Amino acid sequence: MLRSMLKRLARDNEGSAMIEGAIAVPVLCLLLFGVYEFSWFFYQQHLVSEGLRDAARYLARVSAPCDPASTEWPLEQMRAKNLATTTSIGGGAARVKGWTAASVSVQCTAIENPIGPTGLSAYRAGPVVFVVTASTRFTNPALGLFGILGLRSPVISVSHSERVIGPG
Prior knowledge:
Layout: H1 2-11, H2 16-60, H3 72-86, E1 104-112, E2 128-139, H4 145-148, E3 155-163
Antiparallel strand pairs: 1-2, 2-3
Helix pairs in contact: 2-3
């Protein structure tokens, strides 16, 4: 009797679709949410990259670039940091949640531009060329899938450089 019931149970396939669905649906949901989380991360990284590009371009065109003795240079750096993080030199709503002006760093590097054997220098400028670099590194405010999986939130690390061209 027991043997015949086990044979009949082994040949029965009435609940197989439900079992397959119970296995497949969570895997598909995890895949879908993973794609959404990664696309959100890349979108946030793009916004940060655009902000740093705006800040570096702004600093490349100010009236007294890369002059630490200037009273305007620290103010222009703060404006550029605000521009990067909020799209306005006066501040406002953040482009990316959790990204603040304090996490943006600005560096100005002097590069020598010697005259070569042909009588031309590498850049169309004077003997020194200044390059402004705006950079940041902060933890991305993820949507939560990383935390559910026990992973750390990704870190956004972006940098952008522009050659100083002066006021235009």
